[in-house]
Input
Amino acid sequence: MEPMSGSIPLTDITRKKKRPIDLEAQEPGSVLSAGTIASKDSFEEDRSVTCQDVKHIMPTVLILLFTLFVMVTVIPYAFSSVIKQLQGVWALEEQLEADAALKAAAEALQDGSTQEVVQETTPCSC
Output
């Protein structure tokens, strides 16, 4: 049987492409080439912070500062209504506690036990 004119020959399909050479693995100080890394470490320890290092870090610093600005300004503004509601609930709870204490004091006065009323209503810590 003759191959069709539009078909791809098997040699083209099975042929593998060459991989690019890993130049980093060929370095004498590379881990893959069983070299020592001591030369790279000593070089990095001797370096000081340069202007180029600061330029590389600046985008991260700007993003951090922008995020802090948003946290301090926008988030409290967005949740201000929730914070006001919580403050209202806390004030209402304090008022209910005070009303309950006054009601208990009034009932104690009607019963004639004034000694207990004085101890409950005074904020003395003795």
